[in-house]
Structures are given as C-alpha cells and as structure tokens.
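Standup notes
- DV: blocked on the single-chain target, sequence here:
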Amino acid sequence: MKRYQRLEWHHGYDEDPTVIYSEIDAKGFETCKVEQFRGGTSTFADESTATGSTWLAEVALPSLEEIAGQTEFKAEAIDASTFEDVWRSAHEERS
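- DV (later): unblocked, structure below
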C-alpha cells in the first residue's frame, strides 16, 4: 500500500526545495516526488523521469514521525488525490 507525505523544509538555501511531496511504496521507497522551490517553480521525478535536480531517494525513507522530529521539517501525511493534484500541476508547469 502506498502512502503520501508533504514536507515543509525550513532552511535558508535558495537552491534547495522548501516543500517536498512524495509517493512512497510499502517498503518505504519513493516512487514519485515533487519538489517546490522559492519563487514557485517545481521539479519532479519518478522511476523513469527526473527534472531539474530532483531524483528519487536511493534508500527507504524514515517514518513520518522520525522526519517530523527534526526541527527543520514540518511533516504531514496527505491523501493520494492531493499528491496527484500536485504531480499534475508540476507536469503542466513543465509543458
């Protein structure tokens, strides 16, 4: 069963994303990802495509609780529909 998450990453680096959306498989590996940057641009990756500096993690992700325990992140579970809306929007931006 897949799960979906949204991370806000609080940092001062212009080249890094500020929001990261991930679709994660039952083993904890990302299958799709969208990264949003200051200024409103987005990049994305899946198992066959990568744009910008975005790529799928090569290791299983920690639990949402572990991520939320890090002060620079605000982490939340989202539903598949929300992820699909963000995914579609990122693709339309690139068209």
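- Follow-up: Residues 3-94 form one domain.
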